Amino acid sequence: MQHRATDQTRTAVFQPCGTCSPTELNWHTHKKGLFFFSFFCSCFILFLLLFVKLLPIYSSFRSIYDDQPNAHKRFMEKLDARIRNHDREIEKMCNFHHQGFVDAITELLKVRADAEKLMGQVTDTNRRLQDAGREVTAQTEEVIRCRVQQRNMATTVEKLQLCIPVLEMYSKLKEQLESKRYYAALKTMEQLEKVYIPRVSQYRFCQIMAENLPRLREEIKDISMSDLKDFLESIRKHSDKVGETAMRQAQQHRTFNSAVAKQASMGHYIKPVYSLNERTHAHTPNGLLMDDDTGDDEADEEILTAQDLVDFSPVYRCLHIYTVLGDRETFENYYRKQRKKQARLVLQPQANMHETVEGYRRYFNQIVGFFVVEDHILHATQGLVTRAFTDELWNMALSKIIAVLRTHSSYCDVPDLVLELKNLIVIFADTLQGYGFPVNRLFDLLFEVRDQYNETLLKKWALVFREIFELDNYSPIPVETEDEYKLVVSRFPFHDAEIEKQDFPKKLPMSQSVPQIYTQVKEFIYASLKFSESLHRSSTEIDDMLRKSTNLLLTRTLSSCLQNLIKKPHIGLTELVQIIINTTHLEQACRYLEEFITNITNVSPETVHTTRLYGLSTFKDARHAAEGEIYTKLNQKIDEFIQLADYEWGMAESDGRASGYLMDLINFLRSTFQVFTHLPNNNNDHASMSGKVAQTACMSACKHLSTSLMQMLLDTELKQISMGAIQQFNLDVIQCELFASSEPVPGFQGDTLQLAFIDLRQLLDLFMVWDWSTYLADYGQPTSKYLRVNPATALALLEKMKDTSKKNNIFSQFRKNDRDKQKLIETVVKQLRSLVNGMSS
């Protein structure tokens, strides 16, 4: 189309006018032919050059668009548009030179006369030129073709240079995605969008790239979120390992500090054995211990941190990706929500956690691992988690932990398990305190656990005390040699100058249970002290805790065991006496227990508000209970003998000797009261102990015997009593009075012990002498001979004798005397009844 327009233009220009002569017409015709030939040659050469130049770029574009639908049609449309552009340029060029051309023709016409001559010359010259320029023309055509190719290649190279960086960046993007370098891939996408693609946006492949970039961003977002989920699952599984490492390091640090403090207290300091490269213990930004070691066994062990145990790169990568994508808030909310869920799962204990210490250790390891990771995230990222968020998590966790420990620790009934739980809580608290978490409530909880620990100790020592009491023979400790004596004294603070002067073999007053009890009390104090260690409390507070727990042991456990021991049926009077001796020595040893506590706590007993041991009251109560049990058992034994009594209440006269049961009873009382001579009688506050106990027991026994005999006479089931029975009963009472006057227990003044039988004596004398007139006359007067005889008692006994007199008709010669006696009895009965009625009114 371009060539046709050019030909028409040139035909119009060389069209001859109507005034031209034939010569001019021939000249014009020849000129026109020459012009068209030259123009055709030029067009042909130009076409060849264009063809040569366009061939490489055509191949390039063909290779690009082969796989595109309708590529050929679009290419032809673009090519036609380019041809039209060139046609317009040619028209503009022709229009620009047309006037000059017309002016030239006009001037040419003016020299028409010389034209033929010139035409011939030109023709000749043209012929010669054609002949001479054929070779040049061929070379020129070749040069033109090469230059066209060169221009086309330069154009293609220029366009490719614009496209190649885009393709390289896109290829780089693919490589980054394949190697999971998502953050770098996002940066590459940003460069493609803002720098490279706009340079070649007219190409279809660039548009395809631009359309793919949002999809790739979403893929990166999904992949990074998947990696984050895998990370959260991983740290949930490995948090116990992280916590175990952190707690072990905290324990090593505490051990080291204790060693340093101990060395400092001894006046010298040794360089820490676990420093590395002259650097001692320090905390990293995430709070883990770095660059140190803590013992000979682990001197070469590498100190692990959270970074060593957990790969945090998914969190960093996902955080950066969401930050670049402008969606950081969504990521932060998701991460915090998931960590809250994991925190609740971590805080849920196993149902059987309280059974073994490993259950508690796993529980604490998981919690420590969780918060170590959170602390690391807090310091290693900018705002992913905040201090307020971690504090909120910790407060929630702390409340749950305290509730769980309260519940599960209440199930622990083994002191060692409670002690190990306490050690775990201390290490747990120290570990998290090193990361900046407040743990005061945990140390407050330890006081509750301490009470639980004391309860388990008390239960354990109750069993120990019971076993000691069951195995004791309740007899003085025999000592054959000095070594045996020193062994006993080393276990129990016993000092007695008189016993020390005795030759071997000899006996110590207390039984074997006394040094054993004393040793076990000390063991209890040591066990209680173990719990007080590492509680960050002062020596005064520890001393106070030890004294309070020891008081509980003495006042509750030991006292209860002693009370139960005293109440056991198989414990006899001899054992009770030995128990009194034992409690006396244990009471005296309480001051040594106070000194023992003072020595291990280094707290002076003169310190204000120092708690005193309540052992004095404990052993006094036990001793009083033993004394009361002695009186009770003694009375029970007396009752057993009384039950053996077999009086013939209707006998005419007595046997002339005391009853056999009563003599056996008196012999038993004599042998029993001899046992009381073994009670301690030292020159101290308890010097009068043996005398008081023996005297009280003897007086109690005599009173009980007197009361029992009186009740025997006044028994309602006993309807008749003869005078012979009264005489026999009087012989038995005389034996009781002789026993009382024989001073079975030293220390009674005068007839104090005989006064226990005074009621019986006056009653029997009244009936034996039959001195009713004196009784009735002196009744109510302080100087009465029968002051202790109650009218009701006398009346009851007299009525039993009256019934006997009515039925006694054996000796008829005494019938008149019997009638007189019966009348006297009736008269006395009436008077006694009047006295009884007067007393009741």
From TrEMBL:
Keywords: Exocytosis, Membrane, Transmembrane, Transmembrane helix, Transport. The keyword Membrane applies. One of its GO terms (cellular component) is plasma membrane. InterPro entries: EXOC6/Sec15, EXOC6/Sec15_C, EXOC6/Sec15_C_dom1, EXOC6_Sec15_N, EXOC6PINT-1/Sec15/Tip20_C_dom2. Residues 78-247 form the Exocyst complex component EXOC6/Sec15 N-terminal domain. Pfam families: EXOC6_Sec15_N, Sec15_C. Residues 442-800 form the Exocyst complex subunit EXOC6/Sec15 C-terminal domain. The keyword Signal does not apply. The chain crosses the membrane at residues 34-55. One of its GO terms (biological process) is vesicle tethering involved in exocytosis. It comes from the Eukaryota. Component of the exocyst complex involved in the docking of exocytic vesicles with fusion sites on the plasma membrane. Belongs to the SEC15 family. This is Exocyst complex component. It comes from Oreochromis niloticus (Nile tilapia).
